[in-house]
Amino acid sequence: MGIWPARLFTRRRPPPPVRVEYSPEERVVLLVGILDDPAAREDEKYDAAMDLEEFSGPLVESCLIRIVRAEDFTSVLAQLCAESLAGIWARTGRVDPAFMAELRGPAKNEVFSILRDRAPHLLPPDARESISGDRGPDG
Q1: Which of 57, 76, 108, 135 is the most core-located residue (most Cβ within 10 A)?
Q2: How far apart are CA 53 and CA 30, in angstroms?
Q3: Measured between alpha carbons, how far is 1 from 72 in angstroms, rounded to an integer?
């Protein structure tokens, strides 16, 4: 066996990459940054939108609302942001009534569907009435 092939079996492998742990605040900033980055890939934006549901606060909610509006309430990204926003609202027990009134299209469907399942008391009264009417005579 020559010198070169022998080195293949004796060469040290590089150490595995170091996994960096981020604080929740740092994660929020990084995820919002991905959503705001025009160069970010679509799948990265989708993942960031879904991951933001784990967090709360004005930065998270304002970012999700801004993206839903920018995507005209209809894109897949708008729906994922609306889904995360609804999850946050259901978990925290409060909604943004002004934005709730503004919702339309697929984004509205996402929000109402999640709230219907997780926190129906947060839906507007007219939406709650239509829900109770959909359940049939047994309630």
Answers
A1: 108
A2: 14
A3: 66
Is 78 within 8 Å of 68 (Cβ atoms)?
A: yes
- The whole-angstrom separation of Cα 137 and Cα 16 is 61
Judge whether 42 and 78 are in contact, CB under 8 Å: no
Beta-carbon neighbour count of residue 68 at 10 Å? Answer: 29
- Residue 110 backbone dihedrals phi, psi, to 5 degrees: -60, -50
Give the span between the Cα atoms of 125 and 5, in whole angstroms.
Answer: 75
Q: Exposed, middle or buried: residue 136 (CB in 10 Å: 0-12, 13-18, 19+)?
A: exposed
Burial of 66 (0-12, 13-18, 19+ CB in 10 A): middle
Nearest CA to 64 out of 34, 92, 38 is that of 34
**Enclosing H/E stretch for 77:** helix 76-92
